[in-house]
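STRUCTURE REQUEST FORM
Protein name: DJ-1/PfpI domain-containing protein
Source organism: Triticum urartu
Requested output: structure tokens
Priority: standard
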Amino acid sequence: METSPSPKKKQVLLPIVAGTEPIEASIPIDTPRRAGADVTVASAGDALLVEIMYGVKIMADELLADCAAASYDLIVLPGGVPGAVNLGGSATLESIVRKHAEKGGLYAAICAAPPLALASWGLLNGHKVE
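Status: completed
Returned output:
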């Protein structure tokens, strides 16, 4: 009996920085993983261990700079302040998300990340954040 090859797992990128809101990082890490996706948690800083809000520390899988050449099905930006400000200030992240968007890739942002990151990069596609 011949078996068909397993479908390729969806690839998700979740960047984190100092000041990321813990729940806004943990849910988009956990939920896609439960659904069978590979989620790469990437530090937009220069170390894999990132202190996000409330003293919570997360060990990233990779540095964001090392993810620039990879291809993702979805990029999710968590919120939190100053986390969303720090994400919005990352030229590396902006470049990754812009290239992804230009290819028609899916991207999402939570809470403060739409106005503080996506809007500053011109990637709200005509939507307003109020």
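Reviewer notes: DSSP finds four helices and seven strands in the chain. Residues 22-34 form the longest helix (13 residues).
Form closed.
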